[in-house]
Specification:
25 helices; 5 domains; globular; about 15% strand
């Protein structure tokens, strides 16, 4: 009989448990080591460029400001100041590293301190925007149902094309409006011709007043927000001829200087236009005084398509040319006087005189936001000359951005701020990157003949203009596409043909004209300036007529622009290889922009016009005449040059319209509530220009999507995205949120 042996089975659970635990522990250790090595690499790169850290201060301020404006409701002061608590607490803890068991000189502690400082700057930007919103708060009138009498002081006056005027009035009385509800400023258009107005006059106007308008569609430009920060609480137009009551009375002391400057601006603009006349006179007045109102829409459009519209805005280019020319001429004159050149620092003296000239140019041109930005930047440039530092550096630009964002946080949302700073930052970053390579090249300039030196100088000047234009166009292109939905196809050509003349002839003649005006001899400088402006107008007309001169692009989501902007700043501010990581958010932003879908249905805030995207992808409007501004804006944001004609897509009668398109759903637009119940039975989406009775509204909404006059009155313009049998609806009020600049219903 065989002896049976008994074998004991091993306990697999008892063996595998420790193995799994050990594997998990090894995984955690490996991940920790990997994270530590990544942190060490990042910290090593950051330490290598520690001198560039301050450049991100305005970026943090901007993030805080953007966060404030992105909030759906107005934040309270507790939140604004409470944002400082967490980073401040972190800094307090990090100041005593032994309490948290870290070394006083550890890389982690330094990184944590930098993170807390960055967070505090974000809180500073958020609080600055909140403070600014409170400081500029001013009443906004409700929509008055009838014309009213407006009496007040003119603080701004500009001529309009066609002979009309646009007046900015500080009202002292508005009929049917209580004194405590008077807005700080009112903007009114006067269409009657043959009239003359001056800042500083007291006026009485009979006309219509309305609140600043809401956006024409969700995510479109918010004119009401811009007006809020300009303290304009009403807009309107005169119905009769205004009456001048005499000089202003009870004008604020701080406004007296502004009125004086506005009067001189108007006189100087008239003086310039009287010598040149026509379009070139209007452009000369714009370059010298900032008065762009008499430039015709055709000229503006031609310059915009040719990529030359930036010449019409007094910005960094004009300020640099004006102040820089005064600086260069003063230095040349002082250098020619030997006793002065030997005994004094003529470079610094010239910088002071150049700064004074820039300040006078700022005051004369009206001190708009873009001009203020340019003046702050050139002030830092002249200050750098006085301190024997680099005249134009990334630090001076970011310091200017820091000052502007803290004093005027709403500038962050302004397209002029975005485009001017993006262009300057990109140019400085480009030339910083190329400078070392150029310095390493052998200098054979002295070995060339005089003719070769002259040719090389001209060639380098043209190449410099070309490179500058390309870099600036690439840097500002995303902002132009986001805000204007179009880019200039031949902007490089237009700038190459015009910019040399602007720097050599047009702006120098403008400076000389100012110097000759006290002697009534400005015509000797304005005449050659006019020759240059003739060339500018001819180039604009020619380039804008070329096929493909203007490319239209559909709207982007804001997140796409933010990603591109942050990636571009990372790429521009750092100088070592890790700057290329900025390409990742830029690529993400581009992908987000390319995949964004435009709305399929748009309804204006008054229900007067509707646009529908039909099966071939075109956005077709119900009428090109009704609510024309909204229709043009819809088309542009959809990537079209103009609204498409109906072409039989709408079948209309006196009571309403239906959309004739093979694609579903079926859309009905009605003007009479009597047919609403019938249309509910055959339509998938019902849009009513008139209010619907509650019973019919409730019946229809149980079956289909209904948007009537009540919805438009409460929430403003609507946009609808159709997804098969479902739809997504957004309205202007939901996007804007409950903010001080949102019009109360």
């Amino acid at each position: 009989m065989d002896k049976k042996t008994t074998q004991t089975r091993p306990n697999l659970g008892a063996i595998e448990g420790p193995r799994l635990a050990q594997s998990f522990a090894d995984l955690i250790t490996g991940l920790r080591c990997r994270l530590v090595s990544i942190f060490a690499a990042i910290w090593s790169n950051a330490l290598e460029e520690s001198d560039r850290w301050p450049l991100f201060a305005p970026v943090a301020i901007g993030i805080g400001i953007g966060s404030y404006f992105a909030m759906p409701v107005e934040p309270g002061w507790a939140l604004a100041w409470g944002l400082f608590a967490f980073p401040a607490l972190g800094l307090m803890v990090l100041s005593r590293p032994h309490l948290i068991g870290i070394a006083a000189a550890s890389a982690f502690r330094y990184a944590a301190v930098i993170f807390c400082l960055f967070a505090m700057m974000i809180a500073t930007g958020f609080s600055a925007a909140k403070i600014r919103t409170s400081l500029v708060e001013s009443p906004v009138i409700v929509d008055l149902k009838r014309p009213v009498e407006v009496r007040g002081n003119i603080v701004g006056a500009s001529r309009q094309e066609g002979g009309g005027w646009r007046l900015v009035i500080a009202p002292s009385r508005i009929e049917s409006v209580e004194p405590e509800n008077l807005p700080a400023l009112v903007r009114m258009s006067v269409r009657q011709k043959g009239l003359s107005f001056q800042p500083g006059q007291r006026i009485e106007i009979w006309g219509r007043l309305m609140p600043p308008p809401d956006p024409v569609s969700p995510y479109a430009f918010d004119f009401a927000r811009q007006s809020y920060f300009r303290q304009i609480g009403a807009v309107g137009f005169a119905l009769g001829e205004p009456e001048i009551l005499g000089p202003s009375d009870k004008i604020k002391a701080q406004d007296q200087f502004s009125v004086f400057v506005a009067q001189w601006r108007l006189k100087l603009a008239d003086r310039v236009r009287s010598h040149l006349g026509g379009e070139k006179g209007a452009i000369a007045a714009a370059l010298m005084t900032g008065d762009r109102d008499l430039i015709s829409e055709e000229t503006r459009e031609a310059m915009r398509i040719a990529g030359l519209a930036h010449l019409l805005a007094i910005s960094g280019l004009h300020m640099a040319l004006f102040g820089g020319l005064v600086f260069a001429v003063t230095r040349f004159v002082l250098a020619a006087i030997e006793p002065v050149a030997v005994r004094y620092n003529i470079k610094k003296t010239s910088a002071v005189i150049g700064w004074i000239a820039a300040l006078l140019y700022l005051i004369l041109t009206g001190a708009s936001i873009s001009t203020q930005r340019a003046f702050i930047m050139i002030s830092f440039m002249f200050l750098a000359v006085l301190l024997d530092r680099a005249a134009l550096s990334m630090r001076s630009v970011t310091a200017a951005g820091l000052v502007i964002l803290l004093l005027s946080p709403e500038s962050l949302l302004d397209v002029g701020f975005q485009m001017s700073f993006s262009a300057v930052i990109a140019l400085i970053a480009f030339y910083e990157h190329q400078r070392r390579r150029w310095l390493l090249q052998p200098n054979t300039y002295q070995e060339r003949s005089r003719s070769a030196q002259t040719f090389r100088t001209i060639w380098l000047y043209l190449v410099g203009i070309g490179l500058t234009t390309i870099v600036a166009e690439v840097a500002t292109g995303p902002f132009a596409a986001f805000h204007f939905n179009r880019v200039a196809g031949y902007g490089l050509v237009g700038n190459l043909l015009v910019m040399p003349l602007v720097g050599i002839l047009i702006m120098p003649c403008a400076v000389v004209a100012f110097l000759l005006m006290p002697f009534d001899l400005e015509q000797f400088a304005l005449a050659p300036m006019g020759w240059g402006l003739d060339w500018l107008l001819n180039v604009s007309s020619e380039v804008s007529s070329w096929p493909g001169a203007e490319v239209y692009l559909p709207s982007w989501p804001t997140g796409a622009l933010v990603a591109i902007c942050l990636g571009g700043l990372w790429l521009a501010f750092w100088q070592t290889q890790w700057r290329v990581f900025g390409l990742a958010p830029m690529a993400f932003g581009v992908a987000l922009a390319l995949t964004h879908e435009s709305p399929d249905i748009l309804i204006d805030r008054d229900g007067k016009n509707v646009a529908v995207r039909v099966s071939d992808g075109e956005l077709v409007v119900l009428s090109n005449r009704r609510a024309k501004f909204a229709a043009d804006s819809w088309a542009r944001r959809s990537g079209q040059s103009a609204p498409s004609e109906t072409k039989g897509r709408f079948s209309c009668d006196s009571e309403g319209c239906i959309v004739r398109d093979p694609a579903d759903p079926k859309i009905s637009y009605i003007r009479a509530a009597a047919i609403a119940e019938e249309e509910c039975q055959r339509a998938d989406i019902l849009i009513s220009q008139v209010p619907l009775p509650r019973r019919i509204r409730n019946i229809c909404r149980s079956q289909i999507l209904v948007i009537d006059r009540f919805d438009l009155w409460r929430y403003g313009a609507h946009a609808i995205w159709i997804r098969g049998t479902h739809w997504h609806v957004e309205h202007a009020a939901g996007v804007r949120g409950n903010r001080p600049w949102s019009r109360s219903k």
